[in-house]
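Complex record, three chains
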Amino acid sequence: MPEEKPPVVPKPGEAPAAPAAATSAAKAAPEAKAHPEKPAAVAPSGPVGEPWTGEIVEALHKTFPEIAIQAFTYLTQNYLIIPRESVVPVAMFLKTELHFNLLADLTAADYPKREKRFEVVYQLYSFSRNERLRVKAPVGEQESIESVIPVWSGADWMEREVYDMFGIRFEHHPNMKRILLPDEWEGYPLRKDYGILQQDERWVRENLHIESGQ
Amino acid sequence: MATSTPQATFLDANEIVINMGPQHPSTHGVLRVILKLDGEKVMGTECIIGYLHRGVEKIAENRTYVQFAPYVDRMDYVAAVSNGLGYCEAIEKLLNAEAPPRARYVRTILTELNRISSHLLWLGTHALDLGAITPLFYTFREREEILKIFENYCGARLTTHAFRIGGLQYETYDGFEEQVKAFCDYFPPKVDEYETLLTGNRIWLERTKGVGILKADEAIDMCVTGPVLRASGVKWDLRKAKPYAAYAELDFDIPTGPNGDTFDRYFVRMEEMRQSIRIVRQAVAKIPEGPIMGKVPKIMKPPVGEIYHSIEAPKGELGYYVVSDGSTQPYRVRVRPPCFINLQALDRMCRGHLVADVVAIIGTIDIVLGEVDR
Amino acid sequence: MQIPLPPAIAPYFWPVVYGVILLAVFPLAAGYIVLLERKVMADIQARLGPMRVGPHGLLQPIADAVKLLLKEDIIPELTDKWVFWISPIISVVTALVALFLIPMSDKLPVPDLNIGLLFILSLTSVGILGIILGGWSSNSHYPLLGALRSTAQLVSYEVALGFAIVGGLMVAGTLSMQEMVRNQLAQGVWFVFYQPVAFLIYFIAALAETNRAPFDMPEAESEIVAGYHTEYSGFRFALYFLAEYSNIVIVCSIATTLFLGGWLRPFPNVRALDFLNYFPVIALAGLGAFCLLGAAREARTIEKLGMAGLGGALILMGLACLLPGVLPAVEGLFWFIAKVCLGLYTFIWIRFTLPRYRYDQLMRIGWLWLIPLAIANVIVTGVVMMLWQ
């Protein structure tokens, strides 16, 4: 791993970074890291940080032995990478058994160079443990992911925003519509191939009756 | 409301759909709420937002870390200092740097003053929505004092860009401590004045008690944070749970409310103003000497990785999820907007209430559309 | 004044002259009541209010009136044209006629109807028609719903108002406005001391009758249910506005006449307090001196001259009262206007202190609290009066 060992003191409440070997019977391990000296626009192509073990990871592996769950920690923040099909059962387990009852954030990021282009990111928080956890699920371009509204109903608008910005569809969402952009907008702005100066020229032409100034 | 007339008119319909359009005085910005009514009772609401969407997250991918910092103020423009604090601390974490103690204390003072000014604006506009026209002018008069401090410190009143990644750019001006202490003495009687006008007022109590109840488990399920969550009875504040800046060394209480109705949210925010003054008083007494800027490189290229850092903004948990690809520009910046997520609870809170309560409930969530839409 | 007139028109001449003068003067006065409201509002809100137009904003009403008159007269396409035209007229005419019947002084030629108060109340009831027709003719469901709500509120609070007035009438013994005041003079006490509960209920009902805060929900909830005067602009809106402020003056005047002694000075029968007769002189001179002080602080010359002129005029008026025969003629009017101003100030003060009641709470207060209380007051008064005989 080509990152400099960060001289970081584990903050109270976060799981300590245990540099033990990863014990997960995982899928293909993450590939080589991007070098920090390379010029811009080299996306992080895989998980960063050290493998993380602890009681939460043990409990997850015990409950879901057939699901490939990878666990890492970077800068004392722990995160899991799970396959997209297992989002709802893992989320339900995390909420009910491990008490991660607050979904702080639900968002996504676009890594076009990867095999599965998008990564849906869930930031969880547990009141009783005072602990944060991030869960990431890679989703391919034409694939969809199950909505976690049955687990936390506040995921509603956050998933709509992810759909609006990235085009990731959430199965069984009660109202899968755009939320921030007008309903007729074409294109998904936060994708890396949506140029920052690009306006939806047809929308501007049809609705404002002018040529797009950009 | 349905009357029997020979020909069917709209008065016969049992369900009316009414639009509270994007422009009108009571929604604190461009928010469109569609109400489905059965006579006078609200059966459901639908919020249409996005009128103020400026694509801040996309812009972030095309600016350097330092260049993006002023954009952050423009989201929740009422509490710009908090936005800046969250962002600077997130990037400092990513760079594994730390702001020096003096910077942390000054940041705490300015952020708490900002919390007070945000709550004052909320109080004025919320009272105005409910018909009490006068408190608006009083709260803005107090807010002027705070904005004068900001202006003296960094030159701007509203979108301050007060902090830099790694610490502060400006040293505190001569008379900063005196002005802040004078404000701490000037302000608490004013809070008592507002309480006299509103808290004991029977009309205010009738308009706010029992209106828009959100129970604790519902609130957690809807991912609500901030004063709305605390008013529902959950005693959780990021300043105590995961202290940042100088909060670990300061002493303050977290007010909560028993029922989660509009009155409790009002009460929690009033108490928070008092607690903020307490924090500011302690911090001003304890500001250490020292440098104001930590060791950060001139050209910031955080190592490849990601971070999620959140602070207790006046509206709720303001989080920044920053992914770095090793270059000078962030790969992805996600702002976790407290107002956006709190606004989802509007539907739950409005069910079964009268139309006139919708305005009160929108006011009590304390939304700023700049943050809802980014 | 004795002018030889043919006997056919003699009884009508002076009241008609009075009516014409009132009609000419009152709209200007209503404009200044609006300015008073803005200035008092500003004072409560720690600011100054209109200051630009004229010295201390004293020419603001003129500017507002000119603006409203010069506005384009917009009549929406789908309205019922005749009804749209007549609704503000109904409101204004009833308000002004009611005002005509109020005795502001015993020296003014106000017709002394033996059913005076009843007539005034019926006129205000007819004025409600102006509201509902205005909302109806607008042919848009928001003004209609606003008009219906406003009307429902007014009609409900009229019942409470009526019962409160009945309490006062039982003590006054007559419906004639002038007779009421003469009875208060004869008994040597203002009726508010006999009927404090009635006065309080009357005051609260009056706030609701004039759609003032805290009962102004039909007007203020303009997003969801707009007020009845949404579609009106320019001069028509000015008429509604005039009607609203006239109504405020009318309810304050009724309160003054029935409860606060009309044109009488405090303690009219106590000879020891006769020096209070000179209060108008002192008040006018004091106001004049205040204006001169303000003139000294004005920045621009023209405003200095304006304020100085106003101050001088007020002082001259005060001194003129010292001339023989003038003071007895004008003191009644002075006291009446002073009491009405007190009522106006209280209306404005309440508006900017209290939040607004929700519509259902408003109706509940009217029907479940004020009306039973007013009826109870009438019963208790009746019992007490019977036992007193």
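Note: Residues 74-264+323-388 of chain C form one domain.
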